[in-house]
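Review form for a predicted model. The reviewer records the input and the model, then writes brief findings.
Reviewer: anonymous (R2)
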Amino acid sequence: MSDKQNIDTPHEKRPFKGHGHMNVVTLGGFTLGRGVFEPGWRWSNDVKPIAGTDSCQTHHTGICLSGQMAIRFDDGTELTIGSGDVVNLDPGHDAWTIGDEPCVVLDTGIAAYAKPA
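Model under review:
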C-alpha cells in the first residue's frame, strides 16, 4: 500500500518542554520526525522531563538540515553535527543546540522520542 503525508501537517506534533518541537509522520511501520531544536534547547532540560531517563535512550538515524548540535555520550565522548551531516547515534547521550540558529534534523529513530512514558 502506498501512502503519503506532508511533514508540515504531521500526524503528531510533540512539543519539547521549551525551545522547539518534533513533527512526526508515521506511514505503516515507518516513522519520520523533523525536529526543530531552537537556540537554548538542551535534551537534559527540554526532553529529559518528558522521557524520564538520565540520558537520551533513543537510537537516532537521520540528517541535519541546518544549524548545529553538540552531542555528549555517557562515556564522555563528544560529537558536533551540522548541515548535511548524516548521523547514526547510539543511545545514552545529552545534546544541545549550538549558536543562535535552530538546528533542524530529519530523524527516523523517533517512534517513541519525546513521548511521555
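Findings: Strands lie at 12-15, 20-27, 30-37, 60-66, 68-73, 78-82, 86-89, 93-98, 103-107.
Further findings: Residues 12-107 form a domain with the Jelly Rolls fold (CATH 2.60.120.10).
Recommendation: see findings above.
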